Amino acid sequence: MQTLHDRGVRAATLVRFAGVPADRMPRWGRMTAPRMVVHCTDALRMATGDLPIRVLPVGRVVGALGIGPLLARHAPFPKGSPTHPTLLARAPAAFDAELARLAAALDAFAATPLPNRWPPHPVLGRLSGRTWGVLAWRHLDHHLRQFGA
Question: How far apart are CA 95 and CA 79, in angstroms?
């Protein structure tokens, strides 16, 4: 499986983001391209603990059942699925500045040691660094495909 802990995957992901123009319309959903970049940046910040997010009640149940890692690696990302409000709270700045923030968030994600205790996911509960790497790549890929990249 692809993971953001792989340098080549991160580089290819940034190339894909750079290929999305700020005015591109999504294939599904209501996000604009700048809003999507902000959302992806903040999701990476959530994964590293730089953006604290409360675990939802469903996350406590999923965590207690121990199925979060399985879902993170294999469950599909449904089009139009709900998003945690914290990951929609920040308004986009200039598109180039947001792409630079995304690159910095990717670097911070990659610099977080895998054996560290990573923050829990709000829906999936406690995940290892390796599982976060797969989930984060799958999430970014989902949004890149949303914008045809």
Answer: 24
Question: Residue 56 CA to chain centroid, in angstroms?
Answer: 17
How far apart CA 40 and CA 139 sit, in angstroms, is: 8
Q: What angle do CA 115, 50, 139 make, to 5 degrees?
A: 75
For residue 114, what are its two tokens?
């895998």
d(CA 16, CA 149): 6
User: What's the Cα-to-Cα distance from 34 to each of 16, 37, 92, 102, 114, rounded to whole Å?
Assistant: 14, 5, 6, 11, 30
Q: How would DSSP label each residue in 33-60? A: HHHHHHHHHHHHHHHHTSS--PPPHHHH
pTM greater than 0.85 (yes/no): yes
Name residues whose C-beta falls within 8 Å of residue 60's C-beta, 6 or more positions apart in sequence: 125
Tell me: the pLDDT tens digits for 21-77? 999 999 999 899 999 999 999 999 999 999 999 888 888 898 888 898 999 999 888
